[in-house]
Structure formats: structure tokens, C-alpha cells
């Protein structure tokens, strides 16, 4: 839960389920840089993917909200059905935007994870070139 101070100094609280995203972005922007290890980056990618998947499920569930018919043929029924359908389409569009954004973030994290793993492998290979293996005998001196 995010706690911030309002103009009068009182703490404000948010029960937003995506608040961790806002907290993450704010901490990143405040610190100027960030670094993650492999398990953390993997967990972040998984969290983005779960949100994207839930948005996709929500889109499927929201589709009926775009095909509502009024109970009658009178102008009030037709107008109300049109408003409900407009609202359903706006909701569907919102879910689509959030789903695309979250999927893109998950993809970026996975790409970064792949780059991280590749760099770690390259660095380990490079270090092994210049480091004697444990079974080699050292003759003394500086290595």
C-alpha cells in the first residue's frame, strides 16, 4: 500500500492493486538507476505476464458488455442500450491498452533477462580464460 502526504500533511493511502507498479517506477526515477539479479528480473517478468493474462481474461469476459440490447423498442430502451454498449467498448478498449502495455513490459523484462544471462555467461567464460582451473598446480608468484 502506497502512503503519500497530501497538501495538508495527512497521509493518503491507495488500495490500487497495481500500486506496486507505481511504487517501482517512483523508486526507480528517484534513485536514478537500478540493477536486478536473475531471479528478481524473472519474477518481475512473471508479474507483468500475470497482469497481461488477467487483462486478456477480462477482455473475454467484457465482450458481452458491448452487445447489450434494450428490453423494448422505445427510445429510452434503445438509448440506454447504446450507452451501455459505449461504456462496454470503452472498458474493453481500456483493458486492451493495459494488456498490451503489460505484455510489452513482460517481453522487455524477458529480453533484458536473456541479455543478462548471456552477459553473465560471456563474463564467466572470459574470467575462466585468465583464471587457472583448481586442478592446475600453481608454481607460486602473483597470478
Write a structural description.
- The chain has about 140 residues and is mainly alpha-helical.
- The protein contains three helices and two strands, in the order ββααα.
- It has a two-stranded antiparallel sheet.
List keywords for this structure.
143 residues; mainly alpha; Helix Hairpins; two-stranded antiparallel sheet; disordered N terminus
Topology:
Elements: E1 2-5, E2 11-14, H1 19-31, H2 38-62, H3 75-130
Antiparallel strand pairs: 1-2
Helix pairs in contact: 2-3
The CATH homologous superfamily name of the domain at 36-120 equals HP0062-like domain
Number of strands: 2
Q: What is the second-level CATH architecture of the domain at 36-120?
A: Orthogonal Bundle
Low-confidence stretches: 1-6
Kindly report the CATH topology of the domain at 36-120.
Helix Hairpins
Helix content bin: 55-70%
Please describe the biggest sheet, giving its number of strands, its sense, and whether it closes into a barrel.
2 strands, antiparallel
Structural class comes to: mainly alpha
Percentage of residues in DSSP E strands: 5-15%
What's the CATH class label of the domain at 36-120?
Mainly Alpha
**How large is the radius of gyration?**
26 Å
Largest sheet strand order: 1-2
H/E element order: EEHHH
